[in-house]
Amino acid sequence: MMLWLAPTPLVVASKSAARRAMLADAGLPIEPTEADIDERAVESRGGPVSPEQAALVLAREKARVAAARWPGHYVLGADQTLALGEKRFNKPENRAAAREQLKALSGRTHALHSAVAVAKDGRVIFGHVETARLTMRRLTDRFLDAYLDTAGDAVMASVGAYQLERLGIHLFERIDGDHFTILGLPLFPLLAFLRREGCLAG
């Protein structure tokens, strides 16, 4: 008996290599796709939202938009927001922006809100968001230079200017939260949903 029971692969509307690897490592057959949306426009539709709500709104919209091109398929959308209190951070545009962001987070605890949504035939049928809290150690200028030199352009690939599973681990002194949530996908709730749907062996 196969673990994956659905007749078609799970369509994953995410550019994140970490998310795709998580799903593949869990034994799910995936079909990568993209959902090109104007994230800031989507967030502003319903007025101001919290960083946690923003992650879920964006995940739902990505799933919905991609599902329109994949009839009959389960389509996953995901998003992650980073907040220091109510202040939101986006992916840094360059090294200088990454350095400024890391200095703002230095010695403080920030929240990562990771959301996942699943749509089918144009309708969102599942959504979930989880939060992890990460405390950075106090970062010296000397360390920041070394970190940025070593990490290179990778600091611009994620919302926090770090990948925790790589060099980003050197930034932290404490982490409270689920590992998969930190990597950008609440995997346990997603797998539970797929089992309820009969897509996965129970």
TrEMBL record:
<dbReference type="GO" id="GO:0009117">
    <property type="term" value="P:nucleotide metabolic process"/>
</dbReference>
<keyword id="KW-0963">Cytoplasm</keyword>
<feature type="active site" description="Proton acceptor">
    <location>
        <position position="79"/>
    </location>
</feature>
<comment type="function">
    <text>Nucleoside triphosphate pyrophosphatase. May have a dual role in cell division arrest and in preventing the incorporation of modified nucleotides into cellular nucleic acids.</text>
</comment>
<protein>
    <recommendedName>
        <fullName>Nucleoside triphosphate pyrophosphatase</fullName>
        <ecNumber>3.6.1.9</ecNumber>
    </recommendedName>
</protein>
<dbReference type="GO" id="GO:0047429">
    <property type="term" value="F:nucleoside triphosphate diphosphatase activity"/>
</dbReference>
<keyword id="KW-0378">Hydrolase</keyword>
<keyword id="KW-0546">Nucleotide metabolism</keyword>
<dbReference type="InterPro" id="IPR029001">
    <property type="entry name" value="ITPase-like_fam"/>
</dbReference>
<dbReference type="GO" id="GO:0005737">
    <property type="term" value="C:cytoplasm"/>
</dbReference>
<dbReference type="InterPro" id="IPR003697">
    <property type="entry name" value="Maf-like"/>
</dbReference>
<comment type="similarity">
    <text>Belongs to the Maf family.</text>
</comment>
<dbReference type="Pfam" id="PF02545">
    <property type="entry name" value="Maf"/>
</dbReference>
